[in-house]
Design brief:
399 residues; alpha/beta; Rossmann fold; eight-stranded mixed β-sheet; 14 helices; 34% helix; lyase; CoaB-like_sf; decarboxylase
């Protein structure tokens, strides 16, 4: 999707600005033409000549540069805004984020943002405490509400010497996200014209209005599967439990709370062409629900449970011809053996098995290690959940 595309790369004044040079080269290797615009503060980290030499284009920084005729410069942001297929700001500092959120256009980069006719991808990059600041959170949410794409920063060692969330994502991840954004515009692929339903996140089984039984699922794997399905052209609906994740433009999201809620929604979507059951569904629910908070001194020490509806098995029993049914299995032992039994018992086409026994994978993590299983084969993938989701669907649908 990047071949022959026209890309504006915006660079702001953060220590990660030097990485933008590598990003520029990566876009060029993918076949894109790149022009660079920089904020004045970015010059303190990387020189203009570096980007001019690499891009083979003049670098736009000032609306009225001293060495260029006003007639040639003051409308440059308009011309670039019409020229580009995609505008990426990497790194994007808290200062520039605030300016974009407020519509301020006091340099060439922010002016070009307002003039752009193409999608805008912003890569927030800063110290972890700054990223968690209420004002930054508020501004990023404003950008999302305005329809801009946000690529979350990575966790790790920061320039301050601290560990936290604020690192510029790897070049490959930025290229993947850029390609995905352009793909959404085209909406062509092996899932074009197909309805895809993905479940994600936990369910909650309430004991009383305050207390409930649940699990630590973040919904990240399910949301990644939904994004990957959209990139293949699918018309995607996500049915999700309580999660705190950014939502992708063009995907339909339906929130639920309990397993019973999820079952009711799935009955309405059981005719989808592809069903991906990535939610961590509660297997048990309290046998008795108390309408008022149970007082501590009145509570019984034994909680009686009953089984919830096995939604995946119900879908397997009602599976339609030509429908693709994909399940997930979280195991602590005998991973492949238990997953194969589940595949057969529940009449699945594919099952994605993973374990919580390994470090830095599974619930709440951004990474995972999975084994993709059908009746004939097994294949394992490791990496970020976003990349794994893309590999899973590429394998299943031969993308």
């Amino acid at each position: 999707m990047l071949s022959d595309k026209r890309i504006i790369l915006g660079v702001t004044g953060g220590i990660a600005a030097y990485k933008a040079a590598f990003l520029l080269r990566a876009f060029q290797k993918a076949g894109a033409e790149v022009r660079v615009t920089m904020t004045p503060a970015a010059h303190r980290f990387v020189g203009v000549d570096t980007f001019a030499s690499l891009s083979k284009h003049p670098v736009a920084t000032h609306i009225f540069p001293e060495n260029q005729a006003a007639a040639d410069s003051w409308t440059q942001h308009i011309e670039w805004g019409e020229w580009a297929d995609l505008f990426i700001i990497a790194p994007c500092t808290a200062n520039t984020i605030a300016k974009i959120a407020g519509g301020i256009s006091d340099n060439m980069l922010t002016s070009t943002v307002l003039a752009a006719r193409c999608p805008l991808l912003i890569c927030p990059t800063m110290d972890g405490e700054m990223y968690r600041a209420p004002a930054v959170k508020r501004n990023i949410q404003t950008l999302r509400d305005d329809g801009y794409h946000i690529l979350e920063p990575e966790e790790g060692y920061l320039a301050s010497g601290l560990e936290g969330k604020g690192r510029l994502p790897e070049t490959e991840d930025i290229l993947d996200e850029s390609s995905a954004i352009l793909t959404r515009t085209v909406s062509e692929g092996p899932l074009s014209g197909k309805k895809v339903v993905v479940t994600a996140g936990p369910t909650r089984e309430f004991i009383d209005p305050i207390r409930f039984i649940s699990n630590p699922s973040s919904g990240k794997m399910g949301f990644a599967m939904a994004d990957a399905a959209q990139q293949l052209g699918g018309e995607v609906t996500v049915i999700h439990g309580p999660v705190q994740l950014p939502k992708t433009e063009g995907i339909n999201y339906i929130g639920i709370t309990s397993t019973a809620d999820l079952f009711e929604e799935m009955k309405h979507h059981a005719d989808a062409d592809v069903i991906i059951m990535a939610a961590a569904v509660s297997d048990f629910t309290p046998a008795d629900y108390h309408g008022q908070k149970v007082k501590k001194d009145e509570a019984k020490e034994t909680l009686h449970l009953q089984s919830t509806q096995d939604i995946l098995q119900w879908l397997g029993q009602h599976k339609q011809e030509a429908q693709t049914l994909i399940g997930f299995a979280m195991e602590t032992e005998d991973l492949v053996k238990n997953a194969r039994q589940k595949l057969k018992k529940k009449n699945l086409d594919w099952i994605i098995a993973n374990t919580i026994s390994a470090e830095n994978v599974g619930f709440e993590s951004d990474s995972n290690t999975v084994t993709v299983i059908n009746k004939q084969s097994t294949e394992s993938f490791a990496g970020s959940k976003k990349k794994i989701a893309q590999k899973i669907l590429a394998l299943i649908f031969k993308a």
